[in-house]
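Recall from the previous lesson that a structure prediction takes nothing but the amino acid sequence as input. Here we apply that procedure to SAM-dependent methyltransferase from Labrys okinawensis. The sequence below is the only information supplied.
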Amino acid sequence: MTKTGNAAGKFDAGRAAEYAVQSRIALAGYDACHELAACLLAADLGPGRPARILVAGAGGTAREIVSAARLERLWHFTAVDPSAPMLELAMAAVGEAGLTARTAPVLGEVAALPEEPIYDAATLIGVLHHLPGEAAKQSVLDALAKRLKPKAPLILAGNRHAYESRPLFLSAWGERWRMHGATAAEIEAKLGKIRQGADPPASDQEVGGLLTQAGFEEPTLFFSSLFWGGWITHRRG
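The prediction returns the following tokens.
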């Protein structure tokens, strides 16, 4: 991953410990998005074929890896994350799923990997909106493109739109927290933390622009849940 400033620091041991629960509340359809991502990659690469998958920002639940491994026994994964607590959680989930031998953990950034186009596919899920500014977002996408084979698919998913630009969505987000037992004060604290701690792309068009500038094809949206979007694209050949 590119230099992220305080992005990795946000995911300390305390934040990492609550991630698996909190992420599923914040994103309605968390598991469905990851499962669809795995299905799209399998359909794109062809079922039953060996592949090397680069999982950027793998920390936390390692849901990208666990979901994909359910479909494809010949896939091997490189799990990259700049947060040690988050990567430890991911590798614990990988171990519970019996996938340790198929998963290589890398503590650090995508840019620190050898700059060779050796990966058959990549995922970047729940990462881009944590990177402050366009330059940081562009840098991680550039780093991914350099390590993918021509025409290799990339799954990108994360929040888009300035939160204040969608007040109804923001209110619905709060209602989802209330649905899961949060008090009014807790909801306000959560929404305040979200407003201060993320910098999502302003639109689907901006996501597309970042990807095309990095050398990817125009993305196709396959999943949407309030602010969250999921896209598949391919490195240009």
